[in-house]
């Protein structure tokens, strides 16, 4: 039996940014994307990007993209929930020493950005919630 996972609205005055990163086959080409919705579920912003790397790198870079947008586009005014379907990326953001060496420099960059973002949370949502 398949578990039902659906998008949940953030609390009043919060925004939720759903991130994703994916690779195709064994190539080093991948894409990242994000969708920002407010507490009413309205679409506020989205982004797609194509990059080179692996699947873990894609997930970590998607999170970094959101944090960068938060700081530089919205002047750190949003209460933000970052949602990822990568339990690895979420764990690494909360416990940077658990990150493997390859994406660790990006995790540390994210940690620096994290310290500059006013009010944010990161949470894991299973991939099935992307449907």
Automatic annotation (TrEMBL):
Output the lineage of the source organism: Eukaryota, Viridiplantae, Streptophyta, Embryophyta, Tracheophyta
Residue ranges annotated for the RNase H type-1 domain, each copy included: 19-131
Q: Which domain of life is it from?
A: Eukaryota
Q: Name it.
A: RNase H type-1 domain-containing protein
Molecular functions per Gene Ontology: nucleic acid binding; RNA-DNA hybrid ribonuclease activity
**Native organism:** Theobroma cacao (Cacao)
